[in-house]
Amino acid sequence: MADVDSLIVASAAFVVIAGLLKRKRKKKRWWTTALYRNRLTTRGPSFLSSMVEEENDGHFKNFTRMSSADFNFLLEAIRDDISRNDTKFRKAVTAEERLAITLRYLATGDSYTSLQYLFNVSKQLISKIVPEVCRAVVKTLSKHVKKGSARCLEIVQCLGVTEEVYRCLGVTAEV
């Protein structure tokens, strides 16, 4: 009886082990989709550089709502704050692309999903890029913004308008 029991246990163990060995390995999944893996070959930097080349047609200014000279000035001013390093796994989104994504978002109000297909960058990354670039722009350009004078503050208080209007007066008007 003991021989029969050990034969049954050995047979069951054989079936289990054979089943485990025969399992098909799952195909490896990429942690990014093909759309994002091919970002550098499909659009990306070539898309921006072709827009800069066609600046006389007004495409770049229409796309970013600023001239290429202003774009380059702003880019050089904030490049250190928004640049990222490449990793072994993928190329980083360039500073030019980060600024272009942010400017396009601010200029048009496009959804992150729309920008995702335009720039071939995931909407999750875009949701991190836009606030980061905005913070860098504010930090860098805050010293160039003119503050409102005491005279502006008096006028605003007499009119009883909000603080936002006062901020706008400080930037646009000199009394």
TrEMBL record:
Transmembrane regions: 6-21
Domain DUF8040: 50-139
UniProt-listed InterPro entries: DUF8040
Keyword Transmembrane helix: yes
Key words of the record: Membrane, Transmembrane, Transmembrane helix
Protein name: DUF8040 domain-containing protein
Species per Swiss-Prot/TrEMBL record: Exocentrus adspersus
Organism placement in taxonomy: Eukaryota, Metazoa, Ecdysozoa, Arthropoda, Hexapoda
